[in-house]
Backbone:
């Protein structure tokens, strides 16, 4: 943007300097010279206004493009973040369910061991009593 602005200013300045130099170096009467200067000044002014309008239009177009792109990128980032959050929540829920399920299985296994352990102890006691008698 700065390069195009510098180019526009350079073109305008070059046009003005070239026009003034051509008018001043041309052999004309004062009235013709003043008329030519006025005409050239008017032409340069019109051209400057046209170029400034084009630069302004291009700037608005680029600003709209940047805004649209930024909006799209923000929307995609938000959707991605939401998806990641939902996945993490799902993983947490699955992990919690798995832990609860495993805990229940461990509890059941401990109860089985207790029951079988008591039965084994009872059997060994009976065997010992039988062997002692």
Residues:
């Amino acid at each position: 943007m700065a390069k195009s602005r510098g180019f526009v200013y350079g073109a305008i300045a070059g046009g003005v300097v070239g026009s003034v130099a051509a008018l001043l170096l041309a052999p004309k009467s004062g009235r013709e010279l003043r008329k030519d200067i006025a005409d050239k000044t008017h032409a340069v002014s019109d051209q400057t206004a046209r170029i400034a309008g084009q630069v302004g239009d291009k700037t608005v177009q680029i600003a709209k493009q940047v805004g649209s792109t930024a909006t799209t990128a923000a929307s995609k980032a938000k959707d991605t973040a939401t998806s990641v959050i939902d996945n993490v929540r799902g993983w947490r829920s699955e992990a919690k369910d798995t832990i609860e399920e495993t805990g229940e299985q461990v509890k059941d296994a401990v109860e089985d061991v207790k029951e079988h352990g008591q039965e084994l102890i009872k059997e060994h006691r009976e065997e010992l009593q039988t062997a002692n008698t």
Observations:
- The mean pLDDT is 80.
- Residues 30-132 form the longest helix (103 residues).
